[in-house]
Amino acid sequence: MIDMKELTPIKAQVSKLENQATSVVIESQEDYAQAIDIVGNLKETGSEIKRKKESITKPLNDALRSARELFKPLESQFEKAEKIIKDKLLAYKRKKDEEAKAEEAKIGAKVVSGGLKLETAEKKIANIDRVESTTRGKIGEVQMRKVRKVRITNEQLIPRRYLVPDMVAIRRDALGGTAIDGVEVYEEETVAVGSY
Fold first, then answer.
1. pTM passes above 0.70
2. Angle at Cα 194 formed by Cα 12 and Cα 60, nearest 5°?
3. What span, in angstroms and rounded, lies between the C-alpha atoms of 107 and 116?
4. Is residue 138 a part of any domain in this protein?
5. Shortest CA distance to 165 belongs to which of 140, 142, 182, 187?
6. Residues 6 or more apart in contact with residue 38 via CB below 8 angstroms
7. What is the number of structural domains in the chain?
């Protein structure tokens, strides 16, 4: 672990370079060369910052990756078991709902035909075996809910405001020579920094 005292010289160097970058005025080749040296010093300092940071983050990322790999099979198996039991609970509830609906229809038909009084029908309907929306076991509880979800039925009909361009594919194809309507390839000058 890095002590904060170890960062003090780097902080001082960054402050110095920031002041130099702020105060430099480029009006001649000599000024331009001086600015290049500031950029070179920034690059070296940036590399040092990255080394110090990665001395902390790399072991943490490695440990995180190892922990994820260690638990992945267990989580996968757990998710599979959870899905299996939830699917069975839903299937049972749907079956009981269908049975209850069929029983209600039979009772309703008897009322309509005059073979059953309304009060008796209401009692019979109230006594139909159903799965409650919340059911408790000895150690668990299940709640059956209806959740509103959305699915795409026809991608062609989706309004443009909901579509996000795939910039990776667009860049790859456009720079590869493919003409794409609404896309242009242009050049922009940037500064690439190196040190020697």
1. no
2. 60
3. 8
4. yes
5. 182
6. 17, 20, 21, 24
7. 1
For residue range 134-177, list pLDDT tens digits in order. Answer: 999 999 999 999 999 999 999 999 999 999 999 999 999 999 99
**Side-chain-side CA neighbours of residue 88 (13 Å):** 6
Tell me the pLDDT tens digit for each residue of 54-91. 999 999 999 999 999 999 999 999 999 999 999 999 99
Mean pLDDT of the chain: 93
Q: Is residue 173 part of a domain?
A: no
Q: Is residue 156 part of a domain?
A: yes
The three-class DSSP label of residue 136 is strand
In a domain, 30, yes or no: yes
Residue type (1 letter), 6: E
Which residues lie below 8 Å from residue 10, measured CB to CB, with a gap of 6+? 45, 48, 49, 52
The DSSP call for residue 117 is -
Side chain identity, residue 161: R
Domain boundaries, position 95: 4-160
